[in-house]
Amino acid sequence: MTWRHYVLLVVLFGFTLVLAGRVVYLATTDKEFLQKEGDARSIRNEAIGAQRGVIRDRWGEALAISTPAYNVVVDPSVKVPDPTAIRALATLLQLDAAQISQKLQNRKRQYVVLKQRITWDEAQSLREKRFDGVKLETVYRRYYPAGEVTAHVVGFSGLGSRNPQDKRPEGEEVALEVGLEGIEMAFDDKLRALPGRKTVLRDRKGQNVRDLEYVRAPKHGEDLTLSIDLRLQYLAYRELKAAVAGHNAASASLVMLDVKTGDILALVNQPSYNPNEGAPRESAGMRNLAITDALEPGSTAKPFAALAGLESGRYTAMSEFDTSPGYVRVVDKTVRDPVDYRLLTLTGVLQKSSQVGIVKLTLGLERESVYDVLKRAGVGELVNSGRPNQSAGSISPGGLKSVVFKVQSEK
Fold it and tell me: Is the pTM of this model over 0.85?
């Protein structure tokens, strides 16, 4: 029994010497390997949030701002929640527990997003539960204080393009928030933010211990000030919505301008949508009718015809036109007034918006007189509003019909 005891001691002592020798060898000769393995388990690259530029009205009122939100992320290579925690996490985030488990199966992955852009209240609940291995990554989401009132002006943004300069550990390019509609899309190059990057040291639970290095500083988006007056925008939207409801109309638009500068003070459409809820299911609500649709000018062409008459020298403000019996025949078209206005001056023709009076004035002018006035006024040209998908309109020197009726070429 004594010799067996000594043999066992010699064997254990020999194993101890071998292990000690291996430790000394790794610490002195192959320490770079140990450092590399340690860094692979504790050092990570992390994003530094950047805010998209703020959009404001002419008085500084915010129309689009970026508010803090949180991505729920897990690093499976460091720590994965146990099955009980996964079920509780799925209930809290309103996700499927089986799908969460499947996402976390690959233990070589270093970055898995369970849910994007959760609210502050949801983030607080997660903090209180303290799930091991679950981390909250601060990001930003767009908020539109005026909602549907400014939807067709401001538009909305969302996760779209990828940034080739910034990649996840698995090689996936990081998605950036880009403008998808309205001013958000038209001035995306100025408003867009580029997140920064930093290297951090994490503990065995996946929590940050300290920042090691700042790789790239975040680039915040530039702020943008519009000519829109939010007070007038609210009034215009309220009145337009009431008018559409009162007349049971399918759609309507209202544009309010500063007559001295040409600035757009209000631009609203019906139907509209709430950009805080994302793109509407029905595309009709997204169309900015005032910008995208080409409409017949109707009676708005009459002042231009009157101006052409005054420029010709043949008419003055007091020139008289006999509109009896309330209609006039031009080629194959009968033009009517709602009532017989009888004798009207040029001023009265504009006040009453008399179709017959304008037709008689125009017949006394050169063929392209009114067309020339319209072209000099910029009718048919693209309005530089800064909004995407603008329609330039169409006008041709086609004679009387092009001026009074549809602003189209006479065939």
Answer: no
